[in-house]
Task: structure prediction
Amino acid sequence: MPWFRFSIHWFSLLFVGAVFAIFGGSLIQPFAAFSPSAHERHAVVLIHGLRNNGSVWDAKGYLASLRDHDAFHVAGHWEDDALRLIPKETLDTVPVFTLTLPENGTVDLRESAKSVASMLRAAHEQAGIDSFTLVGKSLGGIVAREYVSGPLYQDNVDHLITISSPHLGSELAYLPEAYVAMKAWVTQHSNWAWQEPQGWWDTVERTIAREATGWGFGLLKEAKELSLNAGYPIEAPGLRMLLPPEEGNYLAELNTRAHPTQIRYTAIIAKAHPGDYGWKDLRSDVQRLWDGDIADLGMLPVVADVGRSLLHVCRHGLDTHAGSLVGDGVVSEPSQDLSRVHAFRHGSGLRVETITLEAGHHQVHHHVHLPELLLPRLAATGALPHES
Result:
């Protein structure tokens, strides 16, 4: 009967209304939070450095500061070409995504930039995000620049923040060159040493060469293991691409590319103080080395800065070494300054903000509080949800 169907229709509407009255819409909010019609149109993406992964932002305490702040929420993680979203119940906070670069950032930086492009596209399609703030630590900052200045850029970045990034290269990138050259020399002489000797003197020479090349192979193995443990895989293409700019190499090309002028750029520069490193620190580090623990050693900034200075003098002469090269122990201070990059100088129209911290490369997380860093800059671009 018509009146019966009419009653059922109204009863259904009343039932749905009662559900909303009781649950306040919470049953569908997790889905609304990631729908294209949600208020979250801007997101923050954290890009890790060499031989790390997305979890480093949690391990170093960056994500904890964001979780404790009512303006942000951790929204998901990109890994293995998939974006895994984390549902939430409110719509008035800024989503933050992490990602793991291919092979932990050790591959060609252009391949890493492709991964960033895919992740941003997935965030747009799955979560309705239209624009992003990219935060890159060390190599991650170079990957972010590769994305925004490369062919895959989709005009979807408002702000790019780099932390201790080697815009003008890192002398540590010369290590792979030295390693490859030494490996070739040792291999060549080892092949000769194990050939059939001709006469007694030739036997002596080849015997000595066998001992020397055997020692050389052992040294190469130790150097490779040490580099892996320290977080700088010596044969990684990603590290070799961080050679200081010279004609024909990667950074020379990247640093002359046009970068989008509508993006705001911030470079965080970390400065260690090798002079503060004393004998007690040295004894402690030696003991840790003996125990096989080489993470976050205080001596690394000292050794790296001394080595960097010597290398600079050898390559360019004493007269060019008037300025201090003290940096964070991995990247020199000038190299972290994005405003020194060729594309950012002399009326390019690019805006670069610089922030200087007193910290080593592996300790900078103690000094960077992401909510304090992000909030005023998101407000400046109108990216906070309550302003949309």
